[in-house]
Design a protein that fits this description.
The structure holds two protein chains of two kinds. Chain A contains 15 helices and two strands. Chain A is an all-alpha fold. A two-stranded antiparallel ribbon of chain A has the order 1-2. In chain A, a hairpin with a 5-residue loop joins strand 1 and strand 2. Classes of the chains: A mainly alpha, B mainly alpha.
Chain lengths: 344, 120
Protein backbone atom coordinates (compact mmCIF):
# COMPACT_ATOMS: atom_id res chain seq x y z
CA UNK A 1 0.00 0.00 0.00
CA UNK A 2 2.70 2.46 0.99
CA UNK A 3 4.57 1.64 -2.23
CA UNK A 4 1.50 2.55 -4.20
CA UNK A 5 1.25 5.92 -2.46
CA UNK A 6 4.66 7.02 -3.75
CA UNK A 7 4.24 5.57 -7.23
CA UNK A 8 4.25 8.63 -9.53
CA UNK A 9 1.90 7.05 -12.07
CA UNK A 10 -0.63 6.33 -9.33
CA UNK A 11 -0.20 9.81 -7.84
CA UNK A 12 -1.02 11.36 -11.22
CA UNK A 13 -4.29 9.46 -11.13
CA UNK A 14 -4.97 10.12 -7.45
CA UNK A 15 -4.53 13.90 -7.79
CA UNK A 16 -5.71 14.15 -11.40
CA UNK A 17 -9.09 12.50 -11.09
CA UNK A 18 -10.41 14.77 -8.29
CA UNK A 19 -8.98 17.84 -10.03
CA UNK A 20 -10.82 17.02 -13.27
CA UNK A 21 -14.02 16.37 -11.33
CA UNK A 22 -13.69 19.67 -9.47
CA UNK A 23 -12.90 21.65 -12.61
CA UNK A 24 -15.79 20.13 -14.53
CA UNK A 25 -18.13 20.90 -11.62
CA UNK A 26 -16.80 24.45 -11.43
CA UNK A 27 -17.33 24.80 -15.19
CA UNK A 28 -20.91 23.61 -14.85
CA UNK A 29 -21.68 25.72 -11.80
CA UNK A 30 -20.13 28.74 -13.54
CA UNK A 31 -22.90 28.64 -16.16
CA UNK A 32 -25.47 28.68 -13.37
CA UNK A 33 -23.60 31.38 -11.49
CA UNK A 34 -23.32 33.54 -14.58
CA UNK A 35 -27.04 33.34 -15.26
CA UNK A 36 -27.96 34.11 -11.66
CA UNK A 37 -25.43 36.93 -11.52
CA UNK A 38 -26.56 38.42 -14.83
CA UNK A 39 -30.13 38.12 -13.68
CA UNK A 40 -29.43 40.06 -10.50
CA UNK A 41 -27.49 42.72 -12.39
CA UNK A 42 -30.34 43.20 -14.82
CA UNK A 43 -33.00 43.29 -12.10
CA UNK A 44 -34.49 39.88 -12.87
CA UNK A 45 -34.20 36.52 -11.15
CA UNK A 46 -32.39 34.13 -13.49
CA UNK A 47 -32.88 30.35 -13.29
CA UNK A 48 -34.77 29.68 -10.06
CA UNK A 49 -37.17 26.75 -10.53
CA UNK A 50 -34.96 23.65 -10.81
CA UNK A 51 -33.68 22.75 -7.37
CA UNK A 52 -32.65 25.20 -4.61
CA UNK A 53 -31.81 28.59 -6.19
CA UNK A 54 -32.06 26.90 -9.59
CA UNK A 55 -28.75 25.14 -9.07
CA UNK A 56 -29.93 21.92 -10.68
CA UNK A 57 -30.49 23.85 -13.90
CA UNK A 58 -26.92 22.81 -14.76
CA UNK A 59 -27.90 19.15 -14.62
CA UNK A 60 -31.06 19.72 -16.63
CA UNK A 61 -29.15 21.60 -19.30
CA UNK A 62 -26.49 18.92 -19.45
CA UNK A 63 -29.01 16.12 -19.91
CA UNK A 64 -30.83 18.16 -22.54
CA UNK A 65 -27.61 18.74 -24.45
CA UNK A 66 -26.71 15.05 -24.38
CA UNK A 67 -30.04 14.08 -25.93
CA UNK A 68 -29.83 16.45 -28.89
CA UNK A 69 -29.53 14.91 -32.33
CA UNK A 70 -25.97 14.86 -33.60
CA UNK A 71 -25.92 16.68 -36.94
CA UNK A 72 -22.75 16.95 -39.01
CA UNK A 73 -23.13 19.30 -41.98
CA UNK A 74 -22.88 17.60 -45.37
CA UNK A 75 -19.99 19.77 -46.57
CA UNK A 76 -17.98 19.67 -43.33
CA UNK A 77 -14.59 18.06 -42.88
CA UNK A 78 -15.90 15.21 -40.74
CA UNK A 79 -12.72 14.22 -38.91
CA UNK A 80 -11.67 17.72 -37.83
CA UNK A 81 -15.27 18.66 -37.13
CA UNK A 82 -15.61 15.81 -34.62
CA UNK A 83 -12.14 16.20 -33.12
CA UNK A 84 -12.42 19.95 -32.47
CA UNK A 85 -14.92 19.85 -29.52
CA UNK A 86 -12.70 17.49 -27.49
CA UNK A 87 -9.59 19.64 -27.64
CA UNK A 88 -10.60 22.86 -25.82
CA UNK A 89 -11.76 20.94 -22.74
CA UNK A 90 -8.64 18.77 -22.92
CA UNK A 91 -6.31 21.77 -23.10
CA UNK A 92 -7.99 23.71 -20.30
CA UNK A 93 -8.05 20.70 -17.98
CA UNK A 94 -4.47 19.74 -18.75
CA UNK A 95 -3.18 23.27 -18.19
CA UNK A 96 -4.32 23.12 -14.55
CA UNK A 97 -1.90 20.27 -13.79
CA UNK A 98 0.91 22.37 -12.33
CA UNK A 99 -1.07 24.83 -10.20
CA UNK A 100 -0.45 24.22 -6.45
CA UNK A 101 -3.68 24.57 -4.48
CA UNK A 102 -2.22 24.71 -1.02
CA UNK A 103 1.01 25.17 0.89
CA UNK A 104 2.39 25.44 4.39
CA UNK A 105 5.49 26.43 6.36
CA UNK A 106 7.53 23.33 7.18
CA UNK A 107 9.64 22.86 10.32
CA UNK A 108 12.69 24.55 8.80
CA UNK A 109 10.70 27.66 7.89
CA UNK A 110 10.54 26.83 4.18
CA UNK A 111 7.35 27.24 2.20
CA UNK A 112 6.17 23.90 0.82
CA UNK A 113 3.59 23.90 -1.95
CA UNK A 114 1.29 20.94 -2.14
CA UNK A 115 -1.80 19.55 -3.85
CA UNK A 116 -0.73 19.93 -7.44
CA UNK A 117 -0.90 17.08 -9.92
CA UNK A 118 2.66 17.49 -11.15
CA UNK A 119 5.32 19.71 -9.59
CA UNK A 120 7.20 20.36 -12.83
CA UNK A 121 10.37 22.46 -12.96
CA UNK A 122 8.85 24.21 -15.94
CA UNK A 123 5.33 24.50 -14.54
CA UNK A 124 4.69 27.94 -16.00
CA UNK A 125 5.82 26.84 -19.46
CA UNK A 126 3.45 23.87 -19.26
CA UNK A 127 0.50 26.17 -18.56
CA UNK A 128 1.45 28.73 -21.20
CA UNK A 129 2.15 26.08 -23.84
CA UNK A 130 -1.19 24.36 -23.36
CA UNK A 131 -3.04 27.68 -23.20
CA UNK A 132 -1.28 28.71 -26.41
CA UNK A 133 -2.62 25.64 -28.20
CA UNK A 134 -6.18 26.88 -27.64
CA UNK A 135 -6.19 28.57 -31.04
CA UNK A 136 -6.06 25.17 -32.77
CA UNK A 137 -9.50 23.87 -31.75
CA UNK A 138 -11.00 27.27 -32.55
CA UNK A 139 -9.51 27.26 -36.03
CA UNK A 140 -10.28 23.55 -36.57
CA UNK A 141 -13.92 24.14 -35.69
CA UNK A 142 -14.13 27.32 -37.73
CA UNK A 143 -12.58 25.81 -40.84
CA UNK A 144 -14.03 22.31 -40.69
CA UNK A 145 -17.62 23.55 -40.40
CA UNK A 146 -17.41 24.92 -43.94
CA UNK A 147 -19.57 27.88 -43.01
CA UNK A 148 -18.68 31.48 -43.84
CA UNK A 149 -19.55 32.73 -40.39
CA UNK A 150 -17.51 30.12 -38.58
CA UNK A 151 -14.61 30.72 -40.98
CA UNK A 152 -14.62 34.42 -40.07
CA UNK A 153 -15.03 33.66 -36.40
CA UNK A 154 -12.20 31.13 -36.50
CA UNK A 155 -9.93 33.56 -38.31
CA UNK A 156 -10.67 36.30 -35.79
CA UNK A 157 -10.28 33.85 -32.94
CA UNK A 158 -6.83 32.82 -34.11
CA UNK A 159 -5.77 36.43 -34.71
CA UNK A 160 -6.94 37.40 -31.24
CA UNK A 161 -5.56 34.29 -29.58
CA UNK A 162 -2.06 34.63 -30.97
CA UNK A 163 -1.99 38.40 -30.45
CA UNK A 164 -2.96 38.31 -26.79
CA UNK A 165 -0.64 35.39 -26.18
CA UNK A 166 2.30 37.82 -26.43
CA UNK A 167 1.27 40.12 -23.54
CA UNK A 168 0.13 37.04 -21.59
CA UNK A 169 3.54 35.38 -21.90
CA UNK A 170 5.39 38.65 -21.24
CA UNK A 171 3.29 39.43 -18.16
CA UNK A 172 3.93 35.88 -16.93
CA UNK A 173 7.63 36.56 -17.44
CA UNK A 174 7.54 39.23 -14.74
CA UNK A 175 7.19 36.64 -11.93
CA UNK A 176 9.83 34.48 -13.64
CA UNK A 177 12.29 37.37 -13.78
CA UNK A 178 11.47 38.36 -10.20
CA UNK A 179 11.76 34.90 -8.68
CA UNK A 180 14.30 33.29 -11.01
CA UNK A 181 12.37 30.02 -11.30
CA UNK A 182 9.95 28.50 -13.80
CA UNK A 183 8.21 26.22 -11.32
CA UNK A 184 4.86 27.45 -10.06
CA UNK A 185 5.47 26.04 -6.59
CA UNK A 186 8.80 27.92 -6.56
CA UNK A 187 7.09 31.16 -7.54
CA UNK A 188 4.52 30.75 -4.74
CA UNK A 189 7.27 29.90 -2.24
CA UNK A 190 9.23 33.01 -3.24
CA UNK A 191 6.12 35.15 -2.78
CA UNK A 192 5.40 33.59 0.61
CA UNK A 193 8.90 34.47 1.74
CA UNK A 194 9.37 37.86 0.05
CA UNK A 195 5.86 39.28 -0.30
CA UNK A 196 3.28 39.00 -3.06
CA UNK A 197 4.36 40.16 -6.48
CA UNK A 198 1.56 42.69 -6.86
CA UNK A 199 3.21 44.97 -4.34
CA UNK A 200 6.66 43.46 -3.91
CA UNK A 201 7.60 45.23 -7.16
CA UNK A 202 5.84 48.60 -6.77
CA UNK A 203 3.59 49.61 -9.69
CA UNK A 204 5.36 47.22 -12.08
CA UNK A 205 3.92 44.18 -10.32
CA UNK A 206 0.42 45.61 -10.20
CA UNK A 207 0.55 46.65 -13.87
CA UNK A 208 1.84 43.21 -14.87
CA UNK A 209 -1.01 41.63 -12.89
CA UNK A 210 -3.58 43.80 -14.68
CA UNK A 211 -2.01 43.02 -18.07
CA UNK A 212 -1.99 39.31 -17.28
CA UNK A 213 -5.60 39.40 -16.13
CA UNK A 214 -6.83 41.28 -19.21
CA UNK A 215 -4.86 39.05 -21.58
CA UNK A 216 -6.33 35.98 -19.88
CA UNK A 217 -9.78 37.45 -20.48
CA UNK A 218 -8.88 37.78 -24.16
CA UNK A 219 -7.50 34.25 -24.28
CA UNK A 220 -10.69 32.91 -22.74
CA UNK A 221 -12.75 34.96 -25.25
CA UNK A 222 -14.69 36.75 -22.56
CA UNK A 223 -16.29 40.16 -22.99
CA UNK A 224 -14.85 42.75 -23.67
CA UNK A 225 -12.71 40.51 -25.88
CA UNK A 226 -15.29 38.05 -27.21
CA UNK A 227 -15.03 38.97 -30.89
CA UNK A 228 -14.78 35.29 -31.97
CA UNK A 229 -18.21 34.72 -30.48
CA UNK A 230 -19.85 38.09 -31.22
CA UNK A 231 -23.39 36.70 -31.51
CA UNK A 232 -24.79 39.87 -33.06
CA UNK A 233 -22.47 39.74 -36.07
CA UNK A 234 -21.26 36.14 -36.33
CA UNK A 235 -24.37 34.27 -35.08
CA UNK A 236 -22.47 32.38 -32.36
CA UNK A 237 -18.86 32.14 -33.45
CA UNK A 238 -17.24 28.83 -34.30
CA UNK A 239 -19.91 26.75 -32.57
CA UNK A 240 -22.70 27.60 -35.03
CA UNK A 241 -22.74 24.18 -36.69
CA UNK A 242 -22.30 22.14 -33.52
CA UNK A 243 -25.32 20.46 -31.97
CA UNK A 244 -25.89 19.33 -28.42
CA UNK A 245 -22.96 18.46 -26.25
CA UNK A 246 -20.40 19.17 -28.99
CA UNK A 247 -21.30 22.84 -28.85
CA UNK A 248 -21.58 22.55 -25.08
CA UNK A 249 -17.95 21.43 -24.93
CA UNK A 250 -16.78 24.77 -26.29
CA UNK A 251 -18.90 26.65 -23.74
CA UNK A 252 -17.74 24.33 -20.95
CA UNK A 253 -14.12 24.97 -21.92
CA UNK A 254 -14.73 28.71 -21.90
CA UNK A 255 -16.21 28.63 -18.40
CA UNK A 256 -13.44 26.39 -17.07
CA UNK A 257 -10.91 28.66 -18.76
CA UNK A 258 -12.14 31.62 -16.69
CA UNK A 259 -11.65 29.57 -13.51
CA UNK A 260 -8.17 28.38 -14.51
CA UNK A 261 -7.19 31.89 -15.60
CA UNK A 262 -8.24 33.26 -12.20
CA UNK A 263 -6.34 30.49 -10.42
CA UNK A 264 -3.23 31.12 -12.48
CA UNK A 265 -3.34 34.89 -11.91
CA UNK A 266 -3.59 34.21 -8.17
CA UNK A 267 -0.67 31.77 -8.31
CA UNK A 268 1.59 34.12 -10.23
CA UNK A 269 0.81 37.47 -8.65
CA UNK A 270 -1.31 37.12 -5.51
CA UNK A 271 0.78 34.64 -3.56
CA UNK A 272 -1.17 31.49 -4.42
CA UNK A 273 -2.46 29.86 -1.26
CA UNK A 274 -0.31 32.00 1.04
CA UNK A 275 -1.94 34.45 3.44
CA UNK A 276 0.28 36.48 5.77
CA UNK A 277 0.10 35.11 9.30
CA UNK A 278 -2.71 32.70 8.48
CA UNK A 279 -0.88 29.86 6.74
CA UNK A 280 0.08 27.70 9.71
CA UNK A 281 -1.65 24.57 8.43
CA UNK A 282 -1.88 23.12 4.95
CA UNK A 283 -5.64 22.70 5.27
CA UNK A 284 -6.03 26.49 5.36
CA UNK A 285 -4.33 26.89 1.98
CA UNK A 286 -7.27 25.87 -0.22
CA UNK A 287 -9.52 28.34 1.63
CA UNK A 288 -7.29 31.32 0.82
CA UNK A 289 -6.75 30.03 -2.70
CA UNK A 290 -10.46 29.69 -3.37
CA UNK A 291 -11.21 33.07 -1.76
CA UNK A 292 -8.62 34.86 -3.87
CA UNK A 293 -9.36 33.17 -7.17
CA UNK A 294 -13.08 33.36 -6.42
CA UNK A 295 -12.79 37.14 -6.16
CA UNK A 296 -11.07 37.30 -9.56
CA UNK A 297 -13.60 34.84 -10.97
CA UNK A 298 -16.50 37.05 -9.89
CA UNK A 299 -14.66 40.06 -11.31
CA UNK A 300 -14.51 38.32 -14.72
CA UNK A 301 -18.29 37.84 -14.73
CA UNK A 302 -18.86 41.32 -13.38
CA UNK A 303 -16.88 42.75 -16.30
CA UNK A 304 -18.73 40.55 -18.73
CA UNK A 305 -22.12 41.89 -17.74
CA UNK A 306 -21.21 45.56 -17.38
CA UNK A 307 -18.92 46.13 -20.37
CA UNK A 308 -19.48 46.38 -24.08
CA UNK A 309 -17.70 44.41 -26.77
CA UNK A 310 -14.70 45.91 -28.56
CA UNK A 311 -14.69 46.05 -32.34
CA UNK A 312 -12.29 43.55 -33.97
CA UNK A 313 -9.87 46.24 -35.16
CA UNK A 314 -9.91 48.07 -31.80
CA UNK A 315 -9.10 44.76 -30.16
CA UNK A 316 -6.02 44.20 -32.30
CA UNK A 317 -4.86 47.77 -31.93
CA UNK A 318 -5.22 47.69 -28.15
CA UNK A 319 -3.07 44.57 -28.06
CA UNK A 320 -0.32 45.55 -30.47
CA UNK A 321 -0.06 49.26 -29.72
CA UNK A 322 -0.48 49.20 -25.94
CA UNK A 323 -0.20 45.70 -24.43
CA UNK A 324 2.77 44.25 -26.34
CA UNK A 325 5.28 47.10 -25.88
CA UNK A 326 3.89 47.76 -22.39
CA UNK A 327 4.48 44.21 -21.26
CA UNK A 328 8.01 44.21 -22.74
CA UNK A 329 8.85 47.37 -20.84
CA UNK A 330 7.45 45.86 -17.64
CA UNK A 331 9.71 42.81 -18.03
CA UNK A 332 12.75 45.05 -18.51
CA UNK A 333 11.83 47.23 -15.50
CA UNK A 334 11.49 44.13 -13.33
CA UNK A 335 14.87 42.88 -14.53
CA UNK A 336 16.47 46.22 -13.68
CA UNK A 337 15.00 46.16 -10.18
CA UNK A 338 16.16 42.58 -9.62
CA UNK A 339 19.65 43.59 -10.74
CA UNK A 340 19.72 46.67 -8.52
CA UNK A 341 18.62 44.57 -5.53
CA UNK A 342 21.49 42.14 -6.11
CA UNK A 343 23.90 45.08 -6.01
CA UNK A 344 22.58 46.45 -2.72
CA UNK B 1 12.73 13.06 -13.95
CA UNK B 2 10.13 10.32 -14.22
CA UNK B 3 8.77 11.20 -10.77
CA UNK B 4 8.07 14.69 -12.03
CA UNK B 5 6.66 13.87 -15.42
CA UNK B 6 4.70 10.67 -14.82
CA UNK B 7 1.78 12.44 -13.06
CA UNK B 8 1.70 15.07 -15.79
CA UNK B 9 1.51 12.42 -18.51
CA UNK B 10 -1.20 10.52 -16.65
CA UNK B 11 -3.08 13.79 -16.28
CA UNK B 12 -2.79 14.49 -20.03
CA UNK B 13 -4.42 11.13 -20.78
CA UNK B 14 -7.13 11.70 -18.14
CA UNK B 15 -7.99 15.17 -19.36
CA UNK B 16 -8.24 13.96 -22.94
CA UNK B 17 -10.31 10.98 -21.87
CA UNK B 18 -12.88 12.97 -19.87
CA UNK B 19 -14.32 15.04 -22.77
CA UNK B 20 -13.94 12.10 -25.20
CA UNK B 21 -15.95 9.81 -22.94
CA UNK B 22 -18.59 12.50 -22.40
CA UNK B 23 -19.01 12.97 -26.15
CA UNK B 24 -19.17 9.20 -26.67
CA UNK B 25 -21.90 8.96 -24.04
CA UNK B 26 -23.74 11.76 -25.77
CA UNK B 27 -23.73 9.90 -29.09
CA UNK B 28 -25.41 6.94 -27.37
CA UNK B 29 -28.01 9.09 -25.62
CA UNK B 30 -28.77 11.35 -28.58
CA UNK B 31 -32.09 11.03 -30.39
CA UNK B 32 -32.15 10.35 -34.13
CA UNK B 33 -34.79 11.79 -36.40
CA UNK B 34 -36.62 9.16 -38.44
CA UNK B 35 -37.81 11.65 -41.05
CA UNK B 36 -35.17 12.02 -43.77
CA UNK B 37 -34.35 15.56 -44.69
CA UNK B 38 -31.63 16.95 -46.91
CA UNK B 39 -31.99 20.50 -45.61
CA UNK B 40 -31.02 19.36 -42.11
CA UNK B 41 -27.45 18.82 -43.27
CA UNK B 42 -27.10 22.21 -44.93
CA UNK B 43 -24.85 24.79 -43.37
CA UNK B 44 -26.69 27.27 -41.20
CA UNK B 45 -26.10 30.75 -42.53
CA UNK B 46 -28.94 32.68 -40.93
CA UNK B 47 -31.57 31.03 -43.10
CA UNK B 48 -29.95 31.99 -46.41
CA UNK B 49 -29.21 29.21 -48.87
CA UNK B 50 -25.46 28.55 -48.55
CA UNK B 51 -23.80 29.91 -51.67
CA UNK B 52 -20.85 27.65 -52.45
CA UNK B 53 -18.18 26.41 -50.08
CA UNK B 54 -16.67 28.50 -47.29
CA UNK B 55 -13.12 27.39 -48.08
CA UNK B 56 -12.25 30.54 -49.96
CA UNK B 57 -9.51 33.15 -49.96
CA UNK B 58 -9.61 35.62 -47.09
CA UNK B 59 -8.11 38.91 -46.09
CA UNK B 60 -4.28 39.05 -45.87
CA UNK B 61 -4.32 41.14 -42.67
CA UNK B 62 -4.52 37.91 -40.68
CA UNK B 63 -1.31 36.81 -42.38
CA UNK B 64 0.42 40.01 -41.24
CA UNK B 65 -0.70 39.45 -37.66
CA UNK B 66 0.70 35.92 -37.80
CA UNK B 67 4.02 37.26 -39.10
CA UNK B 68 4.43 39.78 -36.27
CA UNK B 69 3.31 37.14 -33.80
CA UNK B 70 6.11 34.78 -34.86
CA UNK B 71 8.62 37.61 -34.34
CA UNK B 72 7.55 38.18 -30.75
CA UNK B 73 6.97 34.53 -29.95
CA UNK B 74 10.55 33.65 -30.89
CA UNK B 75 11.64 36.51 -28.68
CA UNK B 76 9.70 35.01 -25.79
CA UNK B 77 11.65 31.79 -26.32
CA UNK B 78 14.85 33.81 -25.83
CA UNK B 79 13.51 35.70 -22.82
CA UNK B 80 12.74 32.65 -20.68
CA UNK B 81 16.29 31.30 -20.31
CA UNK B 82 17.54 34.88 -19.90
CA UNK B 83 15.03 35.52 -17.10
CA UNK B 84 16.40 32.60 -15.10
CA UNK B 85 19.99 33.89 -15.19
CA UNK B 86 19.68 37.60 -14.40
CA UNK B 87 20.91 37.19 -10.81
CA UNK B 88 24.03 35.32 -11.91
CA UNK B 89 24.92 37.46 -14.90
CA UNK B 90 23.94 40.87 -13.55
CA UNK B 91 24.25 44.10 -15.52
CA UNK B 92 25.65 42.64 -18.73
CA UNK B 93 22.51 40.47 -19.17
CA UNK B 94 20.27 43.51 -18.68
CA UNK B 95 22.17 45.66 -21.19
CA UNK B 96 22.29 42.87 -23.78
CA UNK B 97 18.58 42.28 -23.50
CA UNK B 98 17.83 46.03 -23.62
CA UNK B 99 19.66 46.17 -26.98
CA UNK B 100 17.81 43.09 -28.22
CA UNK B 101 14.40 44.35 -27.11
CA UNK B 102 15.26 47.81 -28.49
CA UNK B 103 15.90 46.38 -31.96
CA UNK B 104 12.64 44.45 -31.74
CA UNK B 105 10.72 47.54 -30.70
CA UNK B 106 12.12 49.41 -33.72
CA UNK B 107 10.71 46.63 -35.90
CA UNK B 108 7.46 46.87 -33.97
CA UNK B 109 7.31 50.66 -34.49
CA UNK B 110 7.92 50.14 -38.23
CA UNK B 111 5.08 47.60 -38.45
CA UNK B 112 2.71 49.90 -36.57
CA UNK B 113 3.63 52.97 -38.67
CA UNK B 114 3.19 50.98 -41.88
CA UNK B 115 -0.31 50.05 -40.72
CA UNK B 116 0.27 46.30 -40.49
CA UNK B 117 -2.26 46.07 -37.67
CA UNK B 118 -4.60 48.81 -38.87
CA UNK B 119 -7.71 46.87 -39.79
CA UNK B 120 -9.99 49.72 -40.80
Amino acid sequence: MSELLVNPWFLGFAYGFPLITVLMTVGGLATWFERRFAGRMQNRVGPSFVGPFGILQVLADGIKMMQKEDIVPRDADKFLFNLAPILPVFLVLASAATIPFTGYWDDTGQWQSWLMVADLDIGILWVLALAGLMVFPIWMAGWASNNKYTLLAGMRGVAQGVSYEIPLVMAALVPVVATGTLSLSGIVAWQAENGWLVWRFPIVGALAFILFFLSSLAEANRIPFDIPEAESELIGGVIVEYTGLKGGMFLMAEYMHTAVAAALAVTLFLGGSHMPGLSFHWALGPIWFVLKSGALFVLIYWIRWSWFRFRADQLMELCWVLFVPGSLILVMLTAVQVWVETLL
Amino acid sequence: MIEQWAPALVFLVLSFGAPAVMLFMATMLAVRSKIPSEARYDNYECGEEPDGMAWVRFHPRYYLVALIFVLFDVEAAFLFPWALNIRDMGGIAIIDMLIFVGILLIGWAYAVRKGAIKWV
